[in-house]
Amino acid sequence: MSNPATAAASAPQKQAEETPSYAWACLVVSLLAAVSIVFSWMWLPGITFPTFKAWLAANNPFFQGAGAANFALLSNVMGLVPIGALIMALPTTVIVRKWGAKIGTLLGLAFSIIGSALSAAFVGSNFYVFLAGRFILGLGLATTVVSGPTCISIWFPDSTRGRAMAIWSTWAPIGIFLSNLVNDSVYKAVGSSMSTLQWVWCILIVVCAIIFAVVFRAPRENERSQVSPVRKPLKEVLYLFKNRQLWCLIFMFVIFNYMNYAFSQYLKTWLQIPVANGGFGWDAATAGLWGGLIVACGALAPIGGIILDKTPRDKKYLCVVAGIIGLTVCSALSFRASFFIPYVIFFCIGNMMLNACCRPLIPTFVFKGGQTAVAFGLSLLTLGQYIGQMVTSYACEPFNATLTAATTGTGMVDPALIFWALVPIGVVGCLLSFGVKPSKKAAKPAEGAQKSEH
Fold it and tell me: What are phi and psi of 231, to 5 degrees?
């Protein structure tokens, strides 16, 4: 006969490993909320800077006549979004601690709606207010990117959290790809009005915010994962961040975003370089289509999430190792037409594994601290994400100049040499990824699921 005490002790563990059916509905609406912000963020690459510049010259007095010098401000249109995200990443932990992940997500969407509305209303009149709107959009982006995965972590147990958070992590590649795909058509459909285009995406965020508010709820007692929904004071969870694995993961994530953003930002330009100069000589439309598809390979993250879920706890770090090695090998093969297929394969491996595995490992490391600890860990990871992207924007300027020169055949430097410089940076990332390996003590599975705290 079975021991009643043993059966009672194993019941919480069994319950914690089962995924509630409603968890998937919560995942879908949280993902939609994040994707909706991408359209408002990325409409400009979708219709290109020259189109936006021409519209401003015709519709905004600030850029007409002697004001043409004000076009130098255009660099802030995209740059202010990650700056806002950087500033808001850590404060989002305080929001989640005080009000919870659902309110955090809704607040992020509210910031995004306000920022998008300001940009839409003032793009044709006051460009400084327009830029302020872009900055506020960045605040909303970070708040949503931190709160969204926290929402997912309290619903999904260890057995399915990897694939669930990996699905959520496709928000950026899916959103960017769709934005690039439809923005030009939507722009033309609304009468080539830059203001109306942004109002369309503002309304989309409003709709997704309403859907999220109605559908998402906190898990009930019998639906909770190993991550407690309890919101502990921050000082009570800081001990969990004296963790070598966690910090190696965060610094490796900075390197991943630095390298990945470099490839993503300049791939389309390289594809247009004439064959005689080492490129493919594709026209802008073809380069945009295929370059966009390659960059969107982060959408393969759910496959990486399933791999992460199937990997034993003490071997999960190998998923991170595989990802950063893939991106490093990609660096060595990059921007050579003869190595294009292997380059794409390793680029996809890197994106698939790192997009899938980094966010789910945060709750794995700090689940004992509940929502507060998970939000703080994701805040640090998000901080690393936008630091990596911002560094790329400035440090990779030589890439742009070199590739542009190669496109016209006037360049004296092989573009591949510039990107090979990323290889030693990738090697550092590989070393950090091995630091994600747990100690023997940490590798032991937890004995039973954590009991719900009140």
Answer: -105, 90
Say if residues 348 and 297 touch (Cβ distance below 8 Å).
yes
Query: Does 298 lie in the same domain as 167?
Result: no
Question: CA 14 to CA 373: how far, in whole Å?
Answer: 24
Total domains in the fold of the chain: 2
Domain containing 193: what range? Answer: 22-65+72-229
What are 78-124's pLDDT values in tens digits?
889 989 999 999 999 999 999 999 999 999 999 999 999 999 999 99
Q: Assess whether 136 and 159 both reside in one domain.
A: yes
Regarding whether 223 and 85 lie in a shared domain, the answer is yes
φ/ψ of 165, rounded to 5, equals: -70, -25
Note whether 86 and 203 are same-domain residues.
Answer: yes
Tens digit of each residue's pLDDT (9 = 90 or more) over 56-67 = 999 999 999 888
1 falls within a domain: no
Look up the pTM and report it. Answer: 0.82
